[in-house]
Amino acid sequence: MDSVPRLTSVLTLLFSGLWHLGLTATNYNCDDPLASLLSPMAFSSSSDLTGIHSPAQLNWRVGTGGWSPADSNAQQWLQMDLGNRVEITAVATQGRYGSSDWVTSYSLMFSDTGRNWKQYKQEDSIWTFAGNMNADSVVHHKLLHSVRARFVRFVPLEWNPSGKIGMRVEVYGCSYKSDVADFDGRSSLLYRFNQKLMSTLKDVISLKFKSMQGDGVLFHGEGQRGDHITLELQKGRLALHLSLDDSKARLSNSLPSATLGSLLDDQHWHSVLIERVGKQVNFTVDKHTQHFRTKGETDALDIDYELSFGGIPVPGKPGTFLKKNFHGCIENLYYNGVNIIDLAKRRKHQIYTVGNVTFSCSEPQIVPITFVNSSGSYLLLPGTPQIDGLSVSFQFRTWNKDGLLLSTELSEGSGTLLLSLEGGILRLVIQKMTERVAEILTGSNLNDGLWHSVSINARRNRITLTLDNEAAPPAPDSTWVQIYSGNSYYFGGCPDNLTDSQCLNPIKAFQGCMRLIFIDNQPKDLISVQQGSLGNFSDLHIDLCSIKDRCLPNYCEHGGSCSQSWTTFYCNCSDTSYAGATCHNSIYEQSCEVYRHQGNTAGFFYIDSDGSGPLGPLHVYCNITEDKIWTSVQHNNPELTRVRGANSENPYAMALDYGGSMEQLEAVIDGSEHCEQEVAYHCRRSRLLNTPDGTPFTWWIGRSNERHPYWGGSPPGVQQCECGLDESCLDIRHFCNCDADKDEWTNDTGFLSFKDHLPVTQIVITDTDRSNSEAAWRIGPLRCYGDRRFWNAVSFYTEASYLHFPTFHAEFSADISFFFKTTALSGVFLENLGIKDFIRLEISSPSEITFAIDVGNGPVELVVQSPSLLNDNQWHYVRAERNLKETSLQVDNLPRSTRETSEEGHFRLQLNSQLFVGGTSSRQKGFLGCIRSLHLNGQKLDLEERAKVTSGVRPGCPGHCSSYGSICHNGGKCVEKHSGYLCDCTNSPYEGPFCKKEVSAVFEAGTSVTYMFQEPYPVTKNVSLSSSAIYTDSAPSKESITFSFVTAQAPSLLLFVNSSSQDFLAVLLCKNGSLQVRYQLSKEESHIFTIDAENFANRRMHHLKINREGRELTIQMDQQLRLSYNFSPEVEFKVIRSLTLGKVTENLGLDTEVAKANALGFVGCMTSVQYNHIAPLKAALRHATVAPVTVHGTLTESSCGFMVDSDVNAVTTVHSSSDPFGKTDEREPLTNAVRSDSAVIGGVIAVVIFIIFCIIGIMTRFLYQHKQSHRTNQMKEKEYPENLDSSFRNEIDLQNTVSECKREYFI
């Protein structure tokens, strides 16, 4: 590439930097008084007490001693003409000399022409300056941002209530020089390079502009190879097109690289700065900057021949332009340090002028007005009455969808004309009395903030409505009466004191701006309106348009879309995963631990690790077990993957994608106590780490993009595998099994658990290209447990103690959440102070939480009153939030306290002190108690770490079960942990994290589960031996039996409790489906209780509860009390020896009825079986090796829910895994996963043989069933079927059933 253009670009950037330094230097000492030497004629005002213009310089004591208006009201102002545009840096005020007249607050406005004023703003709000407290003292204010203007206007807002408005003023600053060019919309300046091609690696372009047009090209340059740069106005916004690409995409077809600004067609100066270094670009309009990376293969911008400013001329066609030209003024236009306008003024040869470009800014004398109030603003202008016809035109801009634009009563009984915005559509209606004569609708989305022109013309019985120079279609009914103009035209709204006929307003008043009002083809002088000599008005700002784009910048967070009205903005949070007034709050929880705490069980969830922070939600699997909550993040390659043909010159590499950014994964890892990933390398003549001393053949890449040459089971920095640490490798000379380089399959499998290196992002393999060399790898999901945020707690035990953290920076949005528990009456949870601003959260009384905040407009307090005490030493949740829309406070599940934020005034929360937690800077009102899980804007504060080095504060806080014990159900016991709690389900028939998961099983014919009450046995490592031991030293004084069942078989024996050879308790279904509870208490005495409310063998779930307290017996069936009975005092209950579910296999001498029910035992599904503190079915399924339980026959664990109302015989067991990713035992040799060709052939043969045997078995079973069915049909009396399948397929005959339980009684 040519070096001369490169050198030129470097020099221009150097000159640009020197120019900016020089410009900054001119601002030093810019504090000269500018008003003291002005003549009295330079001052003007809305009115004057003397009737003439009074000088009002600071310290003026002559005459009236300053300015006072004729009337002291909100419409008064004092202005001065400084002669030329100057730079204004400060102002000062006094009251009127020798009087009680002074102003206590005021605002400032500036203008270049004395028209179209602009209000001074700070923090993007109209700024109010504090005024005087007496007549003589001087109050100075330095402007935060200097202003360049010729005219300054002081607008009193408040004044001494015992006097009147009175002012003496001064303005400070210095002279301001600039180069200005005026473009008339048909002209441009061409800057021609000294060579054919200008190639730049860096560019700096700066300018200021003002315009009344919303569209137009400010500058453009392009190269023949496709590079281009264009800056243009589009609907009042600036669009920058920039490409370093060699494609031939046309400008008209491409989308802008960036769009910034809004309402830039307001005829005020706007600054633009474009800085480019290679592909990185900073684009700044006024105070807003957008950073982006442009497209292209190179870093250079190649522009051919010239840059054009003000338009894009078409080569060879003078006066013709490719797009609409810029119409307005440009000031201080610099391209890489070159002052383009200065060159043009001096007629240098580099500049070629197209059309008429002048070097002073022509200012159109247009007076805009603002309708401020949606209920009381209006403008009354007179017309010429009784003219045959009507003509009205004006321009308007607004953000509101609805508002009255014009209302006028027509003459000669023509009716009333109404023009309004309704839903963003322009609606013209002419009506007489209640009859609508005509209606025209046109346009859409006219509340877009842009200027729109409207014209109404009525002539010769026809009316035409024109919008933006396009005539609307006429109304269908053209039989209109003659229209005669009225004498009063009401714009924007109606006065309160008028009758309906004079001014109609069916909707709310208009809020927005208007200009260029013509009535009967005559322009209306709005300055005369302001001076009171024409028409009338209320709640108007005349000579300025105070429209504001509340969506710039966009305060809707996390990609929320912004819309607005005149007074506020709204956020649409759809599809953002966030909610709230500004899309600040994540709709997802921060961890699997929080989901578990809410009562959720295992499943897929989204977690948002930083809450309201910038990181988005991540899709994870929460494996919520009884003792741990695992967070599992799967990647895109979970299967075992074969690798061949890789070497150091041609390595195999696979990158892993976890469905989220590295920042999201790091947040999950850093917030966990432990993380791991299982890595497996199966090998045959493929070395892994090349131990003991060689260069690794396989390595993996971690989070920091670093290579790690260690494998699962080994710590970082140790080039070994797990077998090397255990000294169990196949070859003791190597530290990995695969490094032995054997010709048969082996593997190295283990867990990587050093959190700072996780997750695995890539694996690289280089040793599979030798003869008979092969490998396969699998990397498991990232798995973590232990939430370091949710249970992070501290205890404050002295009132003077506190924790301090760095300043809480939350200018626009702040959310604070935590849990607390206390017995104190009051105390401050946290406090952060600024110079004036502050934020504080406290428990102000035992039942009251207070959130106080001040952003500079005075303190705002929100209080939540609890109906119950909050100092009950239980955990309570607090969440406080402040954003630009509202301030809110939430305590537990109580109603949220909310207050809307003021749209005007200060809105930045500016804090500068340390953040105090548990106390205040004054060491007063300290908090006594515990604070847990403190988050500020989604970020966790590590309270425990800070407490370790702070006196009066202890890490941790016990007592979680006192608040959360109720989350453990069905007899589960809450067990306290340092970080939270767990539910011990040892004595519950249920299991799972909350003891809510049913333990159920399918019983087949002959299945028996017998529990012997003999030796103690441990069932869990989390409880002591004695708590889980069962002793048989005495008979139980009470019995509690609960279980649920589903069956279609009757009779059936459900449960049998044996005390001795004669005494027992049996629960059975009779042949007619009734349920029977039989107590055999001695050889002679038996008690039989029958519940025949329905046929319980009806394939539906039934719940039975038998409870005996001493001698009082109650039986509940399906949650209804069915029986209550008291045993006689002589009854003696024996010691329990065994409990059997299903068929009793021992020879216990059962009576006839029980023996008949025991023929098959129980066929169906049983769940949640409990006898006192024993769960026999759970013991058989979970602790069969240690519990005194014996299982005969087939017992299959399964859910009972899918058997309800289904063919029980057709049930097949569905096995589920806690690992959603189908994890198998990867530690098996690869021969179980990657098979050789011979193994595949052998497998096919085995499968064929197996299928043949299955067919033979099925045919044999079918023939046997057919024979049994034939025998059964020939039997004269019914017997219990011996074949289980046929019994399930036949309906139970209940019509002629004779009870076989003759020794029973019904209660």
TrEMBL record:
PROSITE patterns: EGF_3, FA58C_2, FA58C_3, FIBRINOGEN_C_2, LAM_G_DOMAIN. Keywords: Cell adhesion, Disulfide bond, EGF-like domain, Glycoprotein, Membrane, Repeat, Signal, Transmembrane, Transmembrane helix. It is a single-pass type I membrane protein. GO terms for biological process: cell adhesion. Residues 180-361, 368-545, 792-957, 1014-1200 form the Laminin G domain. GO terms for cellular component: membrane. Residues 1-24 form the signal peptide. It is found in: Membrane. Disulfide bonds join 930-957. Its main location: membrane. Residues 583-635 form the Fibrinogen C-terminal domain. Pfam families: F5_F8_type_C, Laminin_G_2. Residues 547-584, 958-996 form the EGF-like domain. CDD domains: EGF_CA, FA58C, LamG. The chain crosses the membrane at residues 1239-1264. It comes from the Eukaryota. InterPro entries: ConA-like_dom_sf, EGF, FA58C, Fibrinogen-like_C, Fibrinogen_a/b/g_C_dom, Galactose-bd-like_sf, Laminin_G, Neurexin-related_CASP. Residues 30-174 form the F5/8 type C domain. May play a role in the correct development and proper functioning of the peripheral and central nervous system and be involved in cell adhesion and intercellular communication. Belongs to the neurexin family. This is Contactin-associated protein-like 5. The gene is CNTNAP5.
